[in-house]
Amino acid sequence: MKKEEKREIILVTSNENKFKEMNSIAQNFNVSLIWFNIPKVEIQADSLEEIVKFSAIIAYNQINRPLIVEDSGLFIEALNGFPGPYSNYVRRKIGMEGIIRLLEGEKNRKAYFSTVLAYVDSTQLKLFEGRVYGSISTEIRGTKGFGYDPIFIPDGVNLTFGEMSTEEKNKYSHRAIAFRKFLEYLATYTV
């Protein structure tokens, strides 16, 4: 019996941590994830969907091969969903410490992480969303992960993403949820 060949899919990101997280999942789906370490072009928009659609189309026009791009945001209830699609910018400007200061004295620390992943090829553009609910810690905890991982505690767990290994984080993560949805779709899809 002939062994099934691995499918290849390109991930466009300049973030090596995102590649590592997603690559560990891809292995379980007989998918070879190819990392294109190029910055994705992003528009400033109020929704992750708009941002990722634009990025995917630009990347596809440059590479001309089936690919995925993703964008994630941290949405904090007490801050009316801030920083949302501006999460990366806000992290660079005020950091996790700034988010903790904004929530100082706030009892409602509910938040969610959302990822929207776009797959594009010559015939379609399809979106996949992953979301994980949790809360913002009162202090930075853990040195693993990236972004806001050391201040986000998923519901049902007492650890921040920053205190979890990649394998542990992938059990809960918004990115893992979106990527698994895409991989399940890919398993049944033929170009």
UniProtKB/TrEMBL annotation:
<keyword id="KW-0378">Hydrolase</keyword>
<comment type="similarity">
    <text>Belongs to the HAM1 NTPase family.</text>
</comment>
<dbReference type="InterPro" id="IPR020922">
    <property type="entry name" value="dITP/XTP_pyrophosphatase"/>
</dbReference>
<feature type="binding site">
    <location>
        <begin position="13"/>
        <end position="18"/>
    </location>
    <ligand>
        <name>substrate</name>
    </ligand>
</feature>
<dbReference type="GO" id="GO:0036220">
    <property type="term" value="F:ITP diphosphatase activity"/>
</dbReference>
<dbReference type="GO" id="GO:0005737">
    <property type="term" value="C:cytoplasm"/>
</dbReference>
<dbReference type="GO" id="GO:0046872">
    <property type="term" value="F:metal ion binding"/>
</dbReference>
<dbReference type="GO" id="GO:0000166">
    <property type="term" value="F:nucleotide binding"/>
</dbReference>
<feature type="binding site">
    <location>
        <begin position="146"/>
        <end position="149"/>
    </location>
    <ligand>
        <name>substrate</name>
    </ligand>
</feature>
<feature type="binding site">
    <location>
        <position position="71"/>
    </location>
    <ligand>
        <name>Mg(2+)</name>
    </ligand>
</feature>
<comment type="subunit">
    <text>Homodimer.</text>
</comment>
<dbReference type="GO" id="GO:0009117">
    <property type="term" value="P:nucleotide metabolic process"/>
</dbReference>
<dbReference type="InterPro" id="IPR029001">
    <property type="entry name" value="ITPase-like_fam"/>
</dbReference>
<feature type="binding site">
    <location>
        <position position="42"/>
    </location>
    <ligand>
        <name>Mg(2+)</name>
    </ligand>
</feature>
<protein>
    <recommendedName>
        <fullName>dITP/XTP pyrophosphatase</fullName>
        <ecNumber>3.6.1.66</ecNumber>
    </recommendedName>
</protein>
<dbReference type="GO" id="GO:0035870">
    <property type="term" value="F:dITP diphosphatase activity"/>
</dbReference>
<dbReference type="InterPro" id="IPR002637">
    <property type="entry name" value="RdgB/HAM1"/>
</dbReference>
<keyword id="KW-0479">Metal-binding</keyword>
<feature type="binding site">
    <location>
        <begin position="174"/>
        <end position="175"/>
    </location>
    <ligand>
        <name>substrate</name>
    </ligand>
</feature>
<dbReference type="GO" id="GO:0009146">
    <property type="term" value="P:purine nucleoside triphosphate catabolic process"/>
</dbReference>
<feature type="binding site">
    <location>
        <position position="72"/>
    </location>
    <ligand>
        <name>substrate</name>
    </ligand>
</feature>
<feature type="binding site">
    <location>
        <position position="169"/>
    </location>
    <ligand>
        <name>substrate</name>
    </ligand>
</feature>
<dbReference type="Pfam" id="PF01725">
    <property type="entry name" value="Ham1p_like"/>
</dbReference>
<keyword id="KW-0460">Magnesium</keyword>
<dbReference type="GO" id="GO:0017111">
    <property type="term" value="F:ribonucleoside triphosphate phosphatase activity"/>
</dbReference>
<keyword id="KW-0547">Nucleotide-binding</keyword>
<dbReference type="GO" id="GO:0036222">
    <property type="term" value="F:XTP diphosphatase activity"/>
</dbReference>
<comment type="function">
    <text>Pyrophosphatase that catalyzes the hydrolysis of nucleoside triphosphates to their monophosphate derivatives, with a high preference for the non-canonical purine nucleotides XTP (xanthosine triphosphate), dITP (deoxyinosine triphosphate) and ITP. Seems to function as a house-cleaning enzyme that removes non-canonical purine nucleotides from the nucleotide pool, thus preventing their incorporation into DNA/RNA and avoiding chromosomal lesions.</text>
</comment>
<keyword id="KW-0546">Nucleotide metabolism</keyword>
<feature type="active site" description="Proton acceptor">
    <location>
        <position position="71"/>
    </location>
</feature>
